[in-house]
Amino acid sequence: MSGGFPEVRPRRLRSSAAVRRLVAETTLEPRQLILPMFIREGAREPIAIKSMPGVVQHTRDTARKAIAEAAQLGLGGVMLFGVPEVKDEVGSGALDPAGILNVAIRDAVSEVGDELLVMSDLCLDEFTSHGHCGVLDSAGRVDNDATLSIYAEMGVAQASAGAHVVGPSGMMDGQVGAVRTALDAAGYLDTVILAYAVKFASAFFGPFREAVDSSLQGDRKTYQQDGANARDAIREVDLDIAEGADIVMVKPALAYLDIIRQVRDHVNVPVAAYNISGEYAMVEAAAANGWIDRDQALLETLTSIRRAGADTILTYWAKDAAHLLNHR
Ligand code: PBG
Questions:
Q1: Among 76, 81, 139, 243, which residue is least crowded by beta carbons within 10 Å?
Q2: Residue 4 domain-assigned?
Q3: What number is the average pLDDT over the span 113-133?
């Protein structure tokens, strides 16, 4: 202090929009955002998902339009989820080339070609009658190794439908290796694996279950991780990279920002984070009540995930954010 006044004034670098723009440490750009989308088999109209205001189960047609728009906005990609009409014990719809997800991948690629990355969720939960991410053994437990061979086939089905990126998300041990081996054997050397490496059993997945008409009873705690554990997250990431993951994901994002930072500091591959359904629903619900400013809140949320260390973010706000970023 000289003469009672501060010598150093951090406020100087906050004093105008122009100077704030110059010194911003964290960037948020449309190319860093991936839009998750749901495509419902047999739908004639898009169907609103009540717990996720503004998100729909698309028809094949509306999905194509939305994907073309995503490309125009300069997004990093779309992550496709299928909602089949019929489910069975083993999730056959996931392997069927005429199954909704494989059809949606083909539609997407015919719409955007290589202009936009088309990514697909590689998991059985949307396709099984019991709603688990894998097949069950005779005791009703999720059978890890029996599931792996199905994931391997599913990966090849998605790659042959044209997916640029596959996202194994079922948390089976060895899933990345099984999918990589199968893709390579089938000649899909350039198909990228975006591994859901770290996935915590989370209450914040709630709205997603409506989004995919999930039939799950019980929980996923025997395969998804325990939110108390950070070291286990690093262990999962190491395994996935050793098995051939090109990009590793942490999911959910907001209750796990510390994990995103630890993973970013630990690995040399790109890190993705999934800003999940419950994180979206909380902001939308508060905004609908007039309790927070939606646009500010979504940009602040996405910025926090980037600042924590995520290179790319899967978010239901991808288009809204791109509009806001392109017009500011
Ligand atoms: C599994 C999968 C889930 C999500 C993405 N992939 C659900 C789960 O593990 O229960 C959740 C996404 C979200 O909540 O937004 N296929």
A1: 139
A2: no
A3: 96
Question: How, if at all, do strands 271-275 and 312-315 pair?
Answer: parallel
Residues making up the binding site for Mg(2+): 236
For residue 1, pLDDT over 80 is answered with no
Asked, for residue 79, whether it belongs to a domain, the answer is yes
The whole-number pLDDT of residue 2 equals 64
The number of domains in the chain is: 1
Q: Is the pTM of this model over 0.85?
A: yes
Q: From the CB of 51, is ligand 1 less than 6 Å away?
A: no
Q: Is the pLDDT of residue 116 over 70?
A: yes
Specify whether 251 is catalytic.
yes
Is 50 tagged catalytic?
A: no
CA 216 to ligand 1: nearest atom: 10
What is the reported pLDDT for 210? 85
- Enter the tokens of residue 6: 């501060």
Statement: residue 77 has pLDDT above 80: yes
Residue 166's domain comprises 27-326
In a domain, 66, yes or no: yes
Cβ 54 vs Cβ 66: under 8 Å:
no
Q: Is the peptide bond before 168 cis (omega within 30 degrees of 0)?
A: no
Atom of ligand 1 nearest to the CA of 276: 15
